[in-house]
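Before relying on records like the one below, remember that each one covers exactly one chain. Contacts with other chains, cofactors or solvent are not represented anywhere in the record.
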Amino acid sequence: MVKWFNEQDKIIRIVLLIPFWGWLVSALYRILLYVEGDKKSTVTLVIGVLCLLPFLLVGLVFSIIDLITTATADKITFLAE
């Protein structure tokens, strides 16, 4: 999924990161980045799991941050290694 997400047009990635459902995309991106990646960053996994917990609002915050970084830097960069 990480490779698929990164290959999409910028507009599609921005739509996927809209906060209404973006928390789920942010969480899955970070969890799968940890699973599929060569560099295993525990921070990436922890943030991905925290994004799945809706009562903490972590997912909402990270979907907004991911939306901004995707719009400006063209990829998710904040705590996603």
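Residues 2 and 29 are 6 Å apart (CA to CA).
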